[in-house]
């Protein structure tokens, strides 16, 4: 049985953040003390908060969960609770629809990539990919793979070097379990605009290959420090222009093979599909003066890494390798 005691009278859930010093008793009988609000997001007439809290001197994350999703999220996470590379809840406060998670120090987006060795960067990519593979093995689609949802802890080696461990895929609140025979999610604009797959942009059928595409874009960031679809212009553009700027970069970097693009067209039902027509019109904007820049030809990037990414970013989702296949790629075996 969970309970709450606060230094001031507690408001109804979602009206305002829990005050500092609030003590919440969980379903496991543990008492968590709110240390601070890490984020708050207004939506659907309430605030959704993420808190840092402590229990017996150890830090935890407490997250508001949509009440109608609470039991589903708990059930989904049980499928991967034993994966060392997927962060799942360790406790709950059901009466306030709050889940408790282990605290992880930092997200990939906020790590100084330039200071990491190639060995450290490869280990981060491998471990995060292993977490995604564990999810896909259980037919779970994450739907929002991006650097902020890959988190880890730091520690100092004997020589003083800062390295990262406990790499985990996080934020499974938008994840979905699909039966093996299901085609996928439809009519859904999943994920963040700078990381989502082409079929997510199309609101087409999305399944585990959509996560693979997003992971590849995230891996490029982890390896090179480059957010390949991000530009300042796109970041500040209105939605329609933003989509055009980002999708044009998808086509520039990854829509290279004719056979692959034909597969993408077939995947979306043929040439009459409105999104297919839109992408074809964007392809016509390239020229000799403004050519495409295929990622597979980026000479500044390691050839084996380029090969791995190209296999994960085919426009046709059916051609992309799986997370397990990606983990077997020769790039991971290189020093």
TrEMBL record:
Matches recorded under SMART domains: S_TKc (SM00220)
Keywords: ATP-binding, Kinase, Nucleotide-binding, Serine/threonine-protein kinase, Transferase
Reactions that this protein is recorded to catalyse: L-seryl-[protein] + ATP = O-phospho-L-seryl-[protein] + ADP + H(+); L-threonyl-[protein] + ATP = O-phospho-L-threonyl-[protein] + ADP + H(+)
E.C. number: 2.7.11.1
Keyword Transferase applies: yes
Protein's UniProt name: non-specific serine/threonine protein kinase
InterPro entries registered for this protein in UniProt: Kinase-like_dom_sf, Prot_kinase_dom, Ser/Thr_kinase_AS, Ser_Thr_kinase
Domain Protein kinase: 1-332
Species this protein is from: Schizothecium vesticola
Coiled coil regions, renumbered to chain: none
Sequence segments annotated as region (Disordered): 1-21
Claim: Cell cycle is one of the keywords in the record: no
Low complexity compositional bias, start-end: 1-13
A single GO molecular function term of this UniProt record: ATP binding
Cellular component terms per the entry's GO annotation: cytoplasm
């Amino acid at each position: 049985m969970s309970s709450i005691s606060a230094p001031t009278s507690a408001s109804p859930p979602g009206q305002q953040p829990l005050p500092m010093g609030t003590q919440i008793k969980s379903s496991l009988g543990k008492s968590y003390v709110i240390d601070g609000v890490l984020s708050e997001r207004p939506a659907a007439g309430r605030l959704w908060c993420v808190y840092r809290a402590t229990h017996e001197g150890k830090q935890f994350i407490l997250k508001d969960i949509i009440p109608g999703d609470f039991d589903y999220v708990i059930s989904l996470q049980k499928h991967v609770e034993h994966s060392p590379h997927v962060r799942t809840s360790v406790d709950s406060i059901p009466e306030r629809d709050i889940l408790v998670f282990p605290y992880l120090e930092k997200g990939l987006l906020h790590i100084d990539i330039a200071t990491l060795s190639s060995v450290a960067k490869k280990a981060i990519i491998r471990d995060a990919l292993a977490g995604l593979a564990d999810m896909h093995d259980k037919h779970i689609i994450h739907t929002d793979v991006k650097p902020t949802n890959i988190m880890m802890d730091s520690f100092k080696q004997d020589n003083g070097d800062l390295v990262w461990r406990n790499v985990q895929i996080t934020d499974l609140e938008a994840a979905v379990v699909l039966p093996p025979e299901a085609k996928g999610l439809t009519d859904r604009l999943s994920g963040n605009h700078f990381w989502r797959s082409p079929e997510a942009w199309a609101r087409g059928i999305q399944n585990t290959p959509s996560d693979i595409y997003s992971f590849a874009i995230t891996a490029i960031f982890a390896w090179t420090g480059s957010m390949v679809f991000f530009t300042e212009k796109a970041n500040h553009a209105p939605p329609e222009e933003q989509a055009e700027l980002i999708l044009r970069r998808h086509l520039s970097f990854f829509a290279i093979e004719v056979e692959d693009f034909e597969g993408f067209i077939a995947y979306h039902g043929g040439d009459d599909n409105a999104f297919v027509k839109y992408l074809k019109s964007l392809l016509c904007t390239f020229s000799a003066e403004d050519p495409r820049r295929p990622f597979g030809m980026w000479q500044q990037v390691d050839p084996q890494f380029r090969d791995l990414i190209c296999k994960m970013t085919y426009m046709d989702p059916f051609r992309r390798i799986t997370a397990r296949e990606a983990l077997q790629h020769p790039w991971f075996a290189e020093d």
